[in-house]
Amino acid sequence: MAARPSLFTRGLSSLSQSTDANSPNVSSPAEQRDDAKRNLFKTMRPLPTQHYWNVYFDRQAKDAKDSKKEDEANYQASLEQLGTQIESVQDFWRYNNNTPVDQIKMRESIYLFKSGFRPIWEDRRNVLGGSWTFRVPKSSGPDFWTRIQLMAIGEKLQEVLEEGDQICGVGLSVRFNSHLISIWHRDASKQKSIDNILQAVLEDLPPELTPKPDNYFYKKHSDHPGFNPPPELKAVLDSQKRAQEAAAAKSAAASAPPAE
């Protein structure tokens, strides 16, 4: 792995310099306090995240009218992994504070995904999943995005999922007058996970950022028009769909009134 950049670049040499008041190199008391703080932060161990995370950038987001013409390989080619893995809270803030979300261009996207997951519907770890998408005004998009990312790396989203389900990652896509912010999870058959993700987000957001009900929606990856899984996964999806239909029919039969 490439060497990780240092969080702080200013040294503490001024504290060891001559204290002669006439010396041109002597630090003021305020500067000495600042250096002491930096020294303290340097000696602190980074607070690790529970999972490693990667940042991806999509420079050529698929246009809806062309989605059927593009295969998975072409879409993967448009994804670029940025920087090194995020392994600590300090890593996250270094990345987040140096990523100008307001400069991301129309139809481009940025993703923060767990190591091992890629922001591709047809990826073997995502193919059975889905995502919540929130349409947010561009004026509040960066703040909303930071909060959703913190919920992801802080495991607030993971802890509300059903057993056996996983958060894959989160994404931000730029549209004409809004940001589309998404939360991906691995198993779209788990309704409790779907409901709890939404509830967790709405409870975490301050009132000024809370979206209206018509500005968020849930969708399975397999329901997107451009979804194109490999043949070996199509059989898995068909089997899951049949199982869900059978469960729905059984539930409907159980709740139906008895025949007279």
From TrEMBL:
Gene Ontology annotations of biological process type: regulation of translation
One GO location term (cellular component): eukaryotic translation initiation factor 4F complex
Keywords: Initiation factor, Protein biosynthesis, RNA-binding, Translation regulation
Similarity annotation: Belongs to the eukaryotic initiation factor 4E family.
Region: Disordered, residue numbers: 1-41, 214-260
Pfam families named among the record's database cross-references: IF4E
Biased composition (Low complexity): 245-260
Domain of life the protein comes from: Eukaryota
A molecular function GO annotation: RNA 7-methylguanosine cap binding
Bias type Polar residues, positions: 11-30
Name of the protein in its database record: Eukaryotic initiation factor 4E
Keyword Isomerase appears in the UniProt entry: no
RNA-binding found in the keyword field: yes
Species assigned in the record: Daldinia eschscholtzii
